[in-house]
Amino acid sequence: MKRILICGLVAAAISPASVQTGADFVVDGKAVEAILFRPEGDGPLPGVLLIPGYERTARDLISLGERLAATHFAALAVSQPGFGKSQGPADFVGPRTLHVLTEAYRRLQHEPFVDPHRMAIYGYSRGGMAASLLAVELDDLKAAVFGAGIYDFKRAYDDSTLRGVRANMRAETGMTPEAIRERSSILRMDRLHCPVLILHGDRDINVPVTQALLLRDRLMALHKDFEIQIFPGRPHSIGPEVYGLTLDFLKRKLGP
């Protein structure tokens, strides 16, 4: 199923009836920075893993975590290895990063106030790439939001006009055939079992919009359930509509 969205902002008030706590943990002896957002009251509640992008941390997703909690979602924001207080090295969403994020997903899923059968992932930029890679591996995932992500790693490298981005891709992965294959979720979208929301600005120079269009075409060919919003004239950051559209999508897919 395909649904083309009209650009718009869905408002959500921030409720004071929520609890935000540090939830740092350790994976393979290395620290991982995390923040847990829990609405007050009884569960079980749908749970959402929040993944920030390059040089961003869990703290950059506090606003989204609060808005989710205000609408009765539990959420866990996690800094990827190599950023914030999460110990590295960074591997451009490689095996180490995915191992950490999978552990975070399972930790949230097993919280006593979370409904383990209503789980979602939101990611932006590198986080969007991470969300796409997790979505094809987690069979119990019920919804995913990919914001400005990379889905075809080699095509993103070839299309990028930013030397810094290309340098990071080479330095963190080596750009070997195996590294490219591991980081290209588009190659494994036949494994996708949950509805997806794709968000991208058509003036994004960090991650060219061709990534979203390639993913759209692949999901259409596979007859997968997805929605896509391309924002005319918007850069990599897109703008405030992202959170509103994310909340609307998650309510529709994870609601009672």
Describe the structure.
The protein has helices spanning 62-70, 95-109, 126-135, 153-159, 163-173, 177-182, 210-221, 241-254; strands at 2-4, 18-22, 25-27, 30-32, 34-39, 45-51, 74-78, 114-124, 143-147, 196-201, 226-231. The strands form two sheets. A nine-stranded mixed β-sheet has the order 1-11-10-9-8-6-7-5-2, with helices on both faces. A two-stranded antiparallel ribbon has the order 3-4. The longest helix is centred in the middle third of the chain and has 15 residues, at 95-109. The two termini are 21 Å apart. The chain is globular and about 50 Å long. A hairpin with a 2-residue loop joins strand 3 and strand 4. It is built from eight helices and eleven strands. With 256 residues, it is α/β, with parallel strands linked by helices. The chain has one domain: Rossmann fold (3-Layer(aba) Sandwich).
For the biggest β-sheet, the strand order reads 1-11-10-9-8-6-7-5-2
CATH fold title: Rossmann fold
CATH architecture: 3-Layer(aba) Sandwich
Rounded to the nearest angstrom, the distance between the terminal CA atoms is 21 Å
Taking pLDDT < 50 over at least 5 consecutive residues as the criterion, the unreliable ranges are: 1-16
Percent of residues in helices: 25-40%
Q: Regarding CATH, which class?
A: Alpha Beta
Report the order of strands and helices.
EEEEEEHEHEHEHHHEHEH
Let me know the number of strands.
Answer: 11
Question: Count of helices?
Answer: 8
Q: What is the C-alpha radius of gyration, as a whole number of Å? A: 17 Å
CATH superfamily: Alpha/Beta hydrolase fold, catalytic domain
C-alpha geometry: globular
Briefly note the structural class of the backbone. Answer: alpha/beta
**Could you describe the largest sheet, including whether it forms a barrel?**
9 strands, mixed
Mean pLDDT: 92
Number of domains: 1
Work out the strand percent. 15-25%
